[in-house]
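Journal club side-thread
Mid-discussion, someone asked how the predicted structure for our own chain would compare to the paper's figures. Pasting it here so we can look after the session.
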Amino acid sequence: MKPPLLQLCNPRYLPTWIGLGVLRLLSLLPLPVLYRTGTVLGDLMQKTIPSRHHIAERNIRLCFPEKSSADVTAMVRENLRNTARMFLYTGFFWWASRARLDQAIRVSGSEVLDEALRDGRGVIILAPHFVGLELGGIYLSTGYQGVSVYQRSRNPVLDFFMLKSRQRFGAKLIERKSDMKRLVRAIRQGQSCYYLPDQDPGPRRAVFAPFFGIPTATWPVLGRLARLARAQVIPCTTCILADGKGLEMVFDPPLADFPTGNPAEDAARMNRAVESCVRRFPLQYFWVHKRFKTRPSGSPDLYT
């Protein structure tokens, strides 16, 4: 449902319109230019947004305790650069033509997805928060019928353009608070579901499952969704390639013997799958997010 025109034209959203205009202009630039600019912007972020630098550094130290201080410093620096590159690529993600997308992305393991779809069962694509996540969902919709869950933005201008860009090749987005039956029905009808698993759900809705050996607040949804939709679950990562050479999507084999019927065990197995992806591409994960914000009762805050 489109917001009223007057709402989109409200002067309070002028900064959003200006920001979208900048992203639109950036979308016209070659990816190597955006990549190099992202390097500079990422280095600037370390000095101007120290809170995000601290969060990324803390996350990486928690998850890779075997790394030396020099290694962690280098990982944080490159991760912030990738985060900045992701931001600069947003216009490309949202406005690039099908031809430009085809030129910019390469896919590894697509036969895994094709085989799963031929089996006639539903397919859930488990897509952790890697920097190329946005393009992964959009690109999939160019070749497959797809559905995904999104959270509505409080900013109607941003929400309108986000939905328009993500759905421009035929994908269907279902608001997170909508009836789950719509999502289950779409998967059963053969539409692959692009599912983002690794956000902190808060203490009320979380189960705690290990992630890099740390009890982590985890959505207990994937197992239930896979059971109701009779779906296979296929991990997928989308990463930025070096020097602005585009992006790569990597599909892994479906999770074996999933779901188990035990929400805590399903959450643990999901986190192990995400962890495996992160260990393979550690510089591409969204480390600036407080993944360990919600703690088990009595546990200390990990970010103070």
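Post-session note: The chain has one domain: 5-284.
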